[in-house]
Amino acid sequence: MRLCFADLHVHTALSPCADDEMTPPRIVERALAEGLGMIAVCDHNTTGNAAAVQAAADGLAVIAGMEVTSLEECHVVGLFPDAACAAAAGAEVTGLLPAAGEGYADFFGEQHLLAADGTRRGAEPAALATATPLDVGAVVALVHRHGGLAVAAHVDRRSFGVVGQLGFFPAEAGFDAVEVSRHVTPDSPKLAEYAAYGLPLLRSSDSHTLDTIGSARTALRVAAPTFAELVLALRGADGRSVALA
Fold first, then answer.
1. Which residues pair with 40 in a beta bridge?
2. pTM for the whole structure
3. What distance in Å separates the CA atoms of residue 49 and residue 11, rounded to the nearest whole number?
4. CB-based contact 186:117 (threshold 8 Å)
5. pLDDT for res 212
6. What element of type H or E holds 94?
7. Model confidence over 62-102: pLDDT tens digits?
8. What is the C-alpha to C-alpha distance for residues 97 and 85, in angstroms, rounded to an integer?
9. If we measure between CA atoms, which residue out of 114, 127, 109 comes closest to residue 26?
10. Could you say which of 91, 148, 158, 164 is the most buried, measured as most Cβ atoms within 10 Å of its Cβ?
């Protein structure tokens, strides 16, 4: 087993609220500089840049993911076994969204589809900043249907966290893990509350800018930095583990 530091919630310039500097090569460069061995690309309601970041990675494991906004405006992170599974899930989610109309980009921001070298290859026409028509349980089911792990994103936040939006933690939804943000320190007394949900805890940065990548991280004890090993670590299988770092 080896120790691997992971930041499992990083946005690219495809997310309308992320900086334009969040390109595949710059994300990879920053993650390596921060000593990370694994990241997950989780843009809002799309997986359109995940494969590009994977292609740009050299010495860094990149999980293809997505941050889905539910009908209740809860954020759910989906982590997928490969780019193909992620693309299928992303197409399903993005297909549920309205088109980004006139003035959308001026208000929410641009949505840049990027190549591995960081050049722009287009713009996403769907309104990624809007909520899907799927409730929390349906979002989790969609992630699972495509072979992914469903994580309750930044559960400590009042806005867009499942507890803040619903007023309670939906245990019946079937989450695989709970994420806390960089605002929750590894020694915070609030962690006991989140641990009471009975699921593994992850700590991720939710980075929208380069300078916050790795500002929150999870310590994985795994045989290798892969999706399959992440699954086993969440189960605590054969000496594997997850811990806040």
1. 63
2. 0.97
3. 9
4. no
5. 98
6. helix 83-94
7. 999 999 999 999 999 999 999 999 999 999 999 999 999 99
8. 19
9. 114
10. 148
